[in-house]
Design brief:
The protein is mainly alpha-helical. The protein is built from 27 helices and six strands. A six-stranded parallel β-sheet has the order 3-2-1-4-5-6, with helices on both faces. The longest helix has 29 residues.
Length: 565
């Protein structure tokens, strides 16, 4: 069989295995992650051996790892990083460092050299984002203290991958004689990090604005792809790991003004890409280690889960998570995860740990992930909280959405309404497809999503499932009518306020399902803003007073005409 045919056949096997294993795992209540992991085991050398070529498995694993780290970097949105800079960053760093320290000490006590034990500590300290996110979605509403704290702790662990990748060569003490000093590689990694920060801050924003101004989505996508491949080529030319390039490429994109558009565009494929990583991991698990040392392996898995759960449980005392939910969250984060496989693979590349220890660590990580569904069953009974309740309106009980109001369009009307809400302390998310207006709304300090408001994935990302009110203020009357129909059909709980071009358009919007429609003037925008304030909880008299105050401030800020002679 030719090489191209073999490659196509292997890809077919990967997809077929995932397609068969994931639905079965979900029916058993295990979640998609375990389905992909089982699929990899099934088709790998320890299963049916459908794929035996070690070189192909290694290549597939490398590609899957690079894609995984790119997706991990896309989780570090500016908003999430900004929230992380509060108390949670200290909690996340404390949890990561304490777990790494305890695991390192245990490794040294059972006879491993300190640098081997430290590699194990760094790897096993990182919990699984994929497993935790699935558990959160199954049980607790988005925006609750538990899910917010959990995601922030996971984000801290993910961001720790950057220094781990840069400084990991320093732990390759066994290979220092043959490979030379690791310091040049570390220094080069730090230089690349510095260049990444300067390029991202000074140049990328201007280049992105120019690309977006062209007005073609394919040019925008091509530039994003060019940037990712460019980062990979740079680190490859400098003899640095591709994993670092994938992380930096993702961070560059998500830090840009249009990072949300990139993240939304890739979202439909993210689950499959993560699944391919777990399939590649499942194929590489060496069950021979388990057969030789079953009791030792089970003991290490139990010790890891107990230690991590105990540390996380005590760290959560200083968080906003209610006391009765801390055990559940600690159980979710007690396993190790996908990034641990990355650290172990890189440690093998740098010869920082021997192959036997690496095989044992991979097995411990995989088995710790498999303990999660069983442990969560008992933890859920203890916290006694029903899974994801919903009110009659469809909004989840206890959910705190990222925004109370979504504004589609940042023109004359949308800008006034957004500023009125901002000045009075209410959260608003703005969607706009015009690059100039999008730059303005970001400069004004609003959370913005770049793209067409008619896109379902964009609406979902903007928080349409939880938001209470939507302002339709886009310029195109036909697009406004289409958006009105979609929102009324897919998000019936939402109150819709629409800007109309004229009286006829106003009547058409009302017939189409708008709760209120307004002909476009500055006074119209004020009226929409006043009504919106009432809908988010301000009393009618206070809303009227705030609108009058906003009108006075706007009139005072307008330049006065020069008197004529």
């Amino acid at each position: 069989m030719s090489e191209s045919n073999s490659l196509l056949l292997n890809i077919f096997i990967y997809l077929l295995a995932g397609l068969l294993a994931v639905p079965s795992a979900k029916r058993l209540g295990l979640g998609p992650v375990f389905g992909y992991l089982f699929a990899g085991i099934l088709i790998g050398p320890w299963g049916l051996a459908l794929i035996r070529d070690a070189q192909h498995i290694e290549l597939f694993s490398r590609v899957a790892t690079v894609l995984l780290l790119f997706l991990v970097a896309l989780q570090a949105t500016p908003a999430r990083v900004h929230r992380l800079l509060g108390d949670l960053i200290s909690l996340g760093v404390l949890q990561f460092c304490l777990t790494a320290l305890v695991v390192t000490l245990v490794g040294m006590l059972i006879g491993h050299p300190w640098h081997h034990a430290l590699v194990a500590g760094l790897a096993l300290s990182i919990s699984s984002e994929a497993v935790a996110s699935h558990a959160f979605n199954e049980r607790y509403p988005t925006g609750s203290p538990l899910t917010e704290t959990g995601h922030q702790l996971l984000l801290t662990q993910s961001m720790a991958m950057v220094p781990v990748i840069v400084f990991l060569p320093l732990l390759s003490l066994d290979a220092a004689i043959t490979q030379g000093s690791p310091w040049p590689k570390v220094v080069m990694g730090l230089v690349v990090l510095g260049g990444f920060g300067i390029f991202g801050h000074l140049l990328l924003r201007r280049v992105f604005r120019y690309v977006v101004s062209v007005g073609l989505d394919e040019v925008f996508a091509a530039f994003a792809l060019l940037l990712i491949i460019g980062m990979l080529l740079i680190v490859q030319a400098l003899d640095l790991p591709l994993e670092l390039g994938a992380l930096l490429g993702g961070l560059l994109l998500i830090r840009s003004e249009y990072g949300s558009a990139i993240r939304i565009a890739i979202h439909p494929f993210s689950g499959l890409l993560v699944g391919m990583f777990f399939i590649s991991t499942g194929m590489q698990i060496d069950f021979g280690t388990f057969i030789r040392k079953p009791l030792e392996t089970f003991a290490l898995v139990a010790l890891l889960v107990v230690v991590k759960a105990w540390i996380v449980r005590n760290i959560l005392r200083y968080s906003a998570v209610p006391r009765r939910q801390r055990i559940w969250l600690a159980t979710v984060l007690a396993q190790s995860g996908e990034l641990a496989f990355v650290v172990i693979a890189m440690a093998i590349t740098y010869q920082a740990i021997p192959d036997k220890l690496a095989a044992q660590l991979v097995l411990v990580v995989a088995l710790s992930m498999l303990t999660t569904p069983i442990l969560l069953f008992f933890a859920a009974r203890r916290d006694n909280v029903p899974a994801r309740q919903q009110t009659e309106t469809g909004i989840e009980v206890g959910a705190t959405a990222d925004s109370q109001v979504i504004i589609a369009g940042y023109g004359r009307v949308g800008r006034v309404v957004a500023r009125m809400l901002q000045e009075n302390g209410f959260r608003a998310v703005v969607i706009d497809h015009n690059p100039d207006r999008f730059a303005e709304l970001r400069a004004d300090g609003f959370v913005g999503f770049y793209g067409d408001a008619l896109r379902p994935d964009l609406l979902e990302a903007a928080g349409a499932s939880q938001a209470a009110v939507m302002i339709i203020a886009i310029d195109d009357p036909e697009a406004a009518a289409d958006l009105l129909k979609r929102i009324r059909r897919e998000y019936p709980h939402m109150i819709l306020l629409a800007r109309a071009v004229n009286t006829a358009d106003e009547h058409r919007l009302l017939r189409g399902g708008a709760d209120r429609a307004y002909s476009e003037t500055f006074e119209t925008a004020l009226l929409m803003g006043e009504d919106t304030l009432e809908l988010v909880g301000v009393s009618p008299l206070d809303a009227q007073a705030l609108a009058e105050r906003f009108r006075d401030a706007a009139l005072e800020s307008q330049p006065t005409a020069e008197p004529r002679d």
